[in-house]
């Protein structure tokens, strides 16, 4: 019986030991991997399982020591240790794979959660977009109705505005035509006035030349008359001196006559006093006539000089008045030309504005 056990031990006990060791290692690994420290009952059961496994292992080792010896048990332990290390390395690899799988599962769960959240958010956004699209559709329909109404109103307003603008354009065109006609009339009038002014200016220039010539001739005549008057005054002075000399000679002759009468009485028979007085009277009358003639000539010369002075003053006043009138006529001419240019410029500007307004209206109507 012992021999049979000894013979069967390598065939049965070793595998059993292997199985026990493997089972123990597996249980220990599973207990280490699967037990939860937070549950006291699980920890207690785990400790009891380990004690039971240790008891079974001790019993198997004692039996093997008794049957096979220590060398066999050491070899068996080394083999079991190698198998346990292999299992541990496999368990570590599996643990790594499980960790990686757990991590991947966590990532997948996170991705799924994010996808779920994104899907929920997209569904929420989709609902919001559908509501917004519905609201916008309603607003679009309402806006379409309003725009149609607004379009019709604007069309009527534009038609009214175009009609008003056309009426205003026609009025402005009529006014522009009137301005053009007025401008033409003013141009003709200005040209006529300018022609008259040029003719009047030429006539005035000719008249001024004639008047200046006449005034110069009057001045020359005045100077000649002045010289003649001076000559006459000199002659009058000479005649006066001659008269005085004649009177002195008369007095002298009377004295001589008295002396002759007193000294030569016999001479009274040949020439009487009356004859001497008559001769003296004739000489005096001749002198007085000569003086009267000279006075008359002097008076006539003075009158001629006064008349020439008066005419000269009149012509000088007329010349000054014409000279003062000439700048006024020049200014009137320049003002008329300026008004004509302004009227032409306003007419051109009005026509340009009317053309621009018409073009804008046509563009707006299209």
TrEMBL record:
Ranges of Basic and acidic residues composition bias in the record: 275-302
Stretches of the chain forming a coiled coil according to its record: 77-132
Keyword terms, alphabetized: Coiled coil
Region spans: Disordered: 1-40, 264-302, 336-366
Domain of life of the organism encoding this protein: Eukaryota
Protein name as it appears in the record: Uncharacterized protein
């Amino acid at each position: 019986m012992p021999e049979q056990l000894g013979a069967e031990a390598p065939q049965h006990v070793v595998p059993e030991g292997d199985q026990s060791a493997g089972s123990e290692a597996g249980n220990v690994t599973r207990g280490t991997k699967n037990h939860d420290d937070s549950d006291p009952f699980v920890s207690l059961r785990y400790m009891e399982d380990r004690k039971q496994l240790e008891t079974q292992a001790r019993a198997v080792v004692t039996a093997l020591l008794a049957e096979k010896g220590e060398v066999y048990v050491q070899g068996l332990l080394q083999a079991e240790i190698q198998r346990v290390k292999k299992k541990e390395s496999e368990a570590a690899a599996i643990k790594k794979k499980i960790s990686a799988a757990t991590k991947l599962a966590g990532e997948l769960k996170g991705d799924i959660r994010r996808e779920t959240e994104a899907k929920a958010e997209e569904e929420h956004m989709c609902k919001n977009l559908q509501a917004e699209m519905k609201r916008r559709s309603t607003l679009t329909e309402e806006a379409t109705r309003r725009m149609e109404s607004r379009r019709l109103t604007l069309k009527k307003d534009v038609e009214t505005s175009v009609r008003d603008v056309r009426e205003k354009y026609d009025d402005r065109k009529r006014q522009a035509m009137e301005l053009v006609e007025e401008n033409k009339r003013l141009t003709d009038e200005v040209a006529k006035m300018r022609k008259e002014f040029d003719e009047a200016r030429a006539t005035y220039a000719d008249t001024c030349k004639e008047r200046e010539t006449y005034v110069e001739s009057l001045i020359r005549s005045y100077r000649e008359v002045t010289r003649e008057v001076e000559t006459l005054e000199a002659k009058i002075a000479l005649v006066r001196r001659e008269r005085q000399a004649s009177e002195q000679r008369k007095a002298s002759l009377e004295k001589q006559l008295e002396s002759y009468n007193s000294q030569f009485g016999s001479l009274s028979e040949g020439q009487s006093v009356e004859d001497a007085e008559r001769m003296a009277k004739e000489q005096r009358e001749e002198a007085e006539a000569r003086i009267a003639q000279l006075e008359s000539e002097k008076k006539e010369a003075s009158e001629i000089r006064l008349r020439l002075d008066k005419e000269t003053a009149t012509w000088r006043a007329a010349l000054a008045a014409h000279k003062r009138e000439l700048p006024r006529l020049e200014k009137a001419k320049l003002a008329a030309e300026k008004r004509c240019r302004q009227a032409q410029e306003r007419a051109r500007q009005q026509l340009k504005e009317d053309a621009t307004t018409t073009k804008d209206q046509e563009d707006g109507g299209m």
